[in-house]
Write a structure and sequence with these properties.
This protein is mainly alpha-helical. The chain is built from 12 helices and no strands. It has one domain.
Length: 289
Amino acid sequence: MWSLAIVVINLGIAIAAICIFRLLFGLLAGVNTTVELAEKDNYAFGLTFAGGAGALGLILSAAVTGDAAVNLVNEALNVLTYALAGMALLKIGSIINDYIIFHKVSLKAAIADHQLAAGYVQASNFLALGLIISSTVNWVEYETWRGLPSVLMLFFGTQCILLLVTRLRAAIYRRRHQGESLQRAIVAGNTALAIRYSGHVLGTALAMTAGASLVEYYQAEPLLSVAYWLGAGTVLALLLPALALIARKAILLNINVAEEVDEQENIGVAAIEAVIYIAIALLLIGVLA
């Protein structure tokens, strides 16, 4: 009965949190989610919400992992704390993605205009955040609010790594296309570019989570532990594109990837590139585990 009660509480809070997330998602975006999804058929908005809901699910799955609290009230409070913190961090992450990482354009406006490419970018950002936050919650050995400071430090630290990866991706695009902007190309509707970028972001998030296997969390030295984790995550995030390049050269032999994805907007080739990033990251996790 005790285990059943724990399961019911955790599932109840998780489902309620995702329902609340939908309400807050529409409220903070200044739109009616029912109208956007069912009347306007805004696929970009639906993609973005799906990414956010999936990310929240990842965070909650980490929160309920491990030993249950000493009583049902404490268990509910622990899960509720991470549910609220997760929603807040996802919103902060979307703001950082819109105003800092994609500083030259407005992803929010593009999603409102039904730009599917922008939806892919924002959804992948949400999922990347969910992967990172869930990994840090599992890595930090506290299952109560006491683990939140370390989770927050890692959250903002990994945002800097994602920013670095995006700037490197943009620099490569700019070099290939005589100074043109990756951000503007995506918002203009190049879905293939968005898919490849999304795969790179998700691969980066997965690669950074592999850093948890290299670094042990010391409760007496949380700052030092976080610094080591971020250091390992940065190295793995930078190693990923190098390994993906080698794999891409072999898998997509005799295919001009830049022309197919950047110019011809070939979604198939872009999807293969995206999966290469994710597959290499998963291999890193397996090797380092």
